[in-house]
Amino acid sequence: MLTEKQLQNFAELAVRVGANMQKGQEVVIRCDVNCQDFAHLIAQKAYEFGAKKVHMEWRDEKLDRINMLNATKDAICDIPKYQTELWNYFIDRKCCLISISAEDPNKYKGCDANKLSAYQIAFQTARQLFRNATMSNYLRWTIVSVPTPEWAKQVFPNDPVNVAVDKMWDAIARIMRLDTPDPTAAWRKHIETLVSRAKFLTEHNFEYIHMKNKTGTDLKVGLAEGHVWIAAEEDGQDGVPFTANMPTEEVFTAPHNRKIDGTVVNALPLVNNGNVIDDFSITFKDGKVVDYKAKIGYDALKGLLESDEGVLSLGEIALIGKNSPIAQSGILFYNTLFDENASCHLAFGASYPTTVKGGNDMTDEQLAARGMNQSIQHVDFMVGTKDIDIDGIGYDGKVVPIFRDGDWII
Amino acid sequence: MLTEKQLQNFAELAVRVGANMQKGQEVVIRCDVNCQDFAHLIAQKAYEFGAKKVHMEWRDEKLDRINMLNATKDAICDIPKYQTELWNYFIDRKCCLISISAEDPNKYKGCDANKLSAYQIAFQTARQLFRNATMSNYLRWTIVSVPTPEWAKQVFPNDPVNVAVDKMWDAIARIMRLDTPDPTAAWRKHIETLVSRAKFLTEHNFEYIHMKNKTGTDLKVGLAEGHVWIAAEEDGQDGVPFTANMPTEEVFTAPHNRKIDGTVVNALPLVNNGNVIDDFSITFKDGKVVDYKAKIGYDALKGLLESDEGVLSLGEIALIGKNSPIAQSGILFYNTLFDENASCHLAFGASYPTTVKGGNDMTDEQLAARGMNQSIQHVDFMVGTKDIDIDGIGYDGKVVPIFRDGDWII
């Protein structure tokens, strides 16, 4: 368990380094009802730093599961108008958004994959405007995590639940640098390191990234024309910087959705909407998935890959060294926020307009011409094994080694 | 603490006897995030009895307090459109509504009374359409309660919090008849008794109710023309009966808002929006408040009585014997749902259109002509002392004794 001071520091990180809330701004805290205590801490902290008003977007994973198990597909897929009105309000008011991510990885275990996938499509379609507002940095946003009993039990299944929750808090404290005297300063320094790596990669303007390991991955990922590598800190459209993921260890950019070839094997399980997908491989040709296999969660993977056309290509490639604090913790969190920062990853679905120069001012057609991918989905999956080698290949064919044996060499 | 079976019975009471949810209906559960466990039980139970879909209207009293203490009056009074859209949706879909009432009586303790009262006006104004939909029985609705630590601590201040919560559960189990083998059957019988008393009073068609005791109350409350006494069960506009309050012990009707004269002294504290008002008296002339005093919470009473014109008259008169199970428990709950069922009470503000014959089909003008009161408020306060005598006075001047020494004699 954290000390009161550490909890306060954590809430401050979310408000100031994460969403970088500005004085007089309205704030949305999006979290499950089971994380209400930390939400209240963040609300209090937001007011200390001058928030105008704090709104809640409550989630309730236990009710979601009850609904998914009991309501009909039609009822589930009927996304209520009050939900979109909530999001529209947040856009209208230019709120900044602080999400607390603490999903039970087994939230939807045993639910009908077909109903679940139909719901996902309906939900993501209804959420499109709002997702655009965050993905294009029109709104500043951040995600942080706190333990819940259900989640901690999945991560530490052999411990009693209170021990599991304590272990989870300890891990989060280290990963979030809450064990340092000045976590905000520690984060500023960390962000600087990541940003310098992103700058190096952007300046090289590689045509391809080539990933290869001994467990079956051999994939050439073309990069979008005019791509920019981004790390840790981005600018909102209002010019105010923010850190969308806390923790973050990744340096990422946009693939070219017509230039991806080869096969990639997952390195960690993919948890999508409460379903675990594992031991899977994906084969691409000319930017599109042409084959896939999964020993665990095949139906869930199938449901995901059938949700629209764009989900069959990639929207993100992200590089993370095996010596990142999260990778070093050796913990599998079953939560993207952490696991994506333990391992290089790719994402099925939409790319971030911010990962090409001037992307926010481009039309969909202009983005597509650059190789930027569009989809209602954006789902990360981990591919960075401890032995992975990664090279950059220039437009002139020149090869620049980036990773050897799973870690940065630049 | 209740057994699992008792909790299940409790949830069933809310769904079947309370809101009387019909197969295929959408359900709204309105509750604080701190009551999520019971909300999930109700959701599950609703599906067992054929709900189409379960929605949540989350409240968060801790955040409400943080907002009230920190946001400006303008920010607080700016009721977001997503809030009214939520209520409009519930009306459009003809949802039935199950509220879990478990407010911390000190929720707003120490907050600025002026800001609080401005907020109440803004909130109730925004909520008018929805309130009309429930008060006119267009939507079927019910209120039930479960203990929370903050509330239990207020009710049993000398006990450790876990003991206080246990005592509260025990009290609720008895009051809700969950200690009987078949609570649903026990409720049906109880409802029958109350309904027969209401019938007796309606048939007498009294012009006035006269309340008198030894602690200063001497009040003649005229009754609306064509009034109907209601108890326990009412019909929704769709003809389906429901029980709006669980527990309920009251038999109530509408005062005539131009025929109230005399003085009434409160018998129990009034908790309004997290403020305790006590030791107060109200004097009426020709149906309107012309004077009021309060030793505790004067500002809160003043704020309430200044919220609109209609709040200065009465919208409800309700009779409850001193031998009701709630009165017998001897517990002051600081919660209207219970305390109003321990004691005869009156309500400042709006009357229920259902308490005159054909009221739901009348215009506001027609209702007003009958003496029905209109206001954005409806706030109960308890006046039934153990020594109260109550008479009915007919249009012919005939006096019929109804209560002697605080209990029914009919």
What secondary-structure arrangement, pairings included, does this model have?
The structure is a homodimer of 410-residue chains.
Chain A: H1 4-18, E1 26-32, H2 36-48, E2 53-59, H3 61-70, H4 73-77, H5 81-92, E3 96-100, H6 113-126, H7 128-135, E4 141-144, H8 149-155, H9 161-175, H10 183-204, E5 208-212, E6 218-223, E7 230-231, E8 234-235, E9 241-242, E10 251-253, E11 255-265, E12 270-272, E13 275-285, E14 288-296, H11 298-305, E15 314-319, H12 325-329, H13 336-339, E16 345-349, H14 364-369, E17 378-382, E18 389-393, E19 399-404, E20 407-408
Parallel strand pairs in A: 1-2, 1-3, 3-4
Antiparallel strand pairs in A: 5-6, 5-18, 6-11, 7-10, 8-9, 10-15, 11-13, 12-13, 13-14, 15-16, 16-17, 18-19, 19-20
Helix pairs in contact in A: 1-2, 1-10, 6-11, 8-9
Radius of gyration of chain A: 20 Å
Specify the overall morphology of chain A: globular
Straight-line distance between termini of chain A: 37 Å
- Low-pLDDT segments, ≥5 res of chain A: none
Tell me the quaternary state.
homodimer
Instruction: Give the rounded overall mean pLDDT of chain A.
Output: 95
- Strand portion of chain A: 25-35%
Largest sheet of chain A: 9 strands, antiparallel
Tally of extended strands of chain A? 20
Measured by residues with Cβ under 8 Å of the partner chain's Cβ, the largest interface is:
A-B, 33 and 33 residues
**Class from helix and strand fractions of chain A:** alpha+beta
Report the helical percentage of chain A: 25-40%
Number of contiguous helices of chain A: 14
